[in-house]
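Is it possible to get an amino acid sequence alongside its tokenized fold?
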Amino acid sequence: MTPELIEKIEKVTGERPHRFIRRGMFFCHRDLDVVLNAYEQQKPFFLYTGRGPSAEALHLGHTIPFIFTRYLQRVFDVPLVVQITDDEKFIFKDNLTLEQTVKMGKSNIKDIIAFGFDPAKTFIFSDVEYIKYLYPNTLRVQKAITYNQMKGIFGFTESDPVGKFAFPPVQAVPAFSNTFPHIYGNRATVPCLIPAAIDQDPYFRMTRDVAQKLKYSKPSTLYSTFFPALQGKKSKMSSSDATSSILLTDTPKQ
């Protein structure tokens, strides 16, 4: 994030950039200027972020992208889609059943709603429940990516469940506007801005590459650093390690 780009954010929005930008928490991007230029030209775009439910409640680290996304929705007055990847956590976490991840997803949605997103312009969906609409674009993405590309990007091995190879396209497709026919019909060229943690970049680099092949709009991304664990800044908060994090449901004693 260059000083010039931060100045442009202030110019376009008409207010001081969010403290997460000023303090360097959101520190890098891909094509953010493309979205800002579109907004200046009064062209539409939408926001996309998500949550992988592996616990009943969010921890403080999870709040960063949602607080920031709420700011983006407010200053730009644009639609937001929030993906709940209950399918991903079932596939990637050996100790969780599908029923558990679906239930955790619904619980996490309550936390997400509490951030104060505009109800008229926010669509929160579970992959398991919305798959009918995700699947057509998922197939297009799956056809455009080879097995070797998937191994190279994500480091999957031959002993991994096949579901791990199948999932990244599911995370990719909410970046394409025609995945949401109730919002955009069959339009596939509405730009998308994705605020996320930096570890999500492999997914969205892949998404950007595939978008070009499909003649869809390439999504722009804006990445944050990790929220440090209670043990210090060398590791991040994790739902799988109760000693590393503070949950939104924790009491003062906890």
